[in-house]
Amino acid sequence: MDPISATNSASNIQMDYMNLLVVQLQNQNPLEPLDNNEMASQLAQISQLQQLETMNQSFSDVLATTELAYANSLLGKEVTFMPETETGDSEITSGLVEQVYNNIEGEILLRTGNHTLGLEDVISVNDRIEI
């Protein structure tokens, strides 16, 4: 589940719970009212869920920023990776990182010559020193 839908999910759960609570209060048996401790406990759990989902979103944002900074640090460096050939085999290849960009899905990609690869495809990194 992506962080945005998780946050919407927490908000929806809270609204559904509040609507249910109002209906329960309106239709409760006056001789057996709802337990205040149970309601408070449920509200606390919903609050904790929202806080956890907010933290998850924050961690996702930090991770995305860190990954982009790492990818940018690879510019001008030689990376080793294993692209698939036309025959379906994989062979170890090296190339100079010339460009860093995001695709439509937001994935960070590196351009090395004729190859495009993701950060997860990088096997090793070497400083390329021109003499």
What does this protein structure show overall?
- The protein is of the alpha+beta class and 131 residues long.
- The protein folds into two domains: 3-71; 75-126, SH3 type barrels (Roll), CATH 2.30.30.
- 47% of the residues lie in helices and 18% in strands.
- It contains two helices and six strands.
- The strands form two sheets. A three-stranded antiparallel sheet has the order 2-1-6, with no helix packed on it. A three-stranded antiparallel sheet has the order 3-4-5, with helices on one face.
- Strand 3 (99-102) and strand 4 (108-112) form a beta hairpin.
- Helix 1 (3-26) packs antiparallel against helix 2 (36-73).
- The longest helix is centred in the middle third of the chain and has 38 residues, at 36-73.
- It starts with a helix and ends in a 5-residue tail after the last strand.
Question: How would the blueprint of this fold be written?
Answer:
Elements: H1 3-26, H2 36-73, E1 78-81, E2 93-96, E3 99-102, E4 108-112, E5 115-118, E6 124-126
Antiparallel strand pairs: 1-2, 1-6, 3-4, 4-5
Helix pairs in contact: 1-2
Number-wise, the strands total 6
- Helix proportion: 40-55%
Number of helices: 2
Q: What strand line-up does the widest sheet have?
A: 2-1-6
State the major sheet.
3 strands, antiparallel
Give the N-terminus to C-terminus distance in angstroms.
49 Å
Radius of gyration: 26 Å
User: Could you name the ranges where pLDDT drops below 50 across 5 or more consecutive residues?
Assistant: none
Mean pLDDT: 83
Strand content: 15-25%
The secondary structure category is alpha+beta
Q: Shape from CA axes? A: rod-shaped
What is the number of independent domains? 2
The helix/strand order is HHEEEEEE
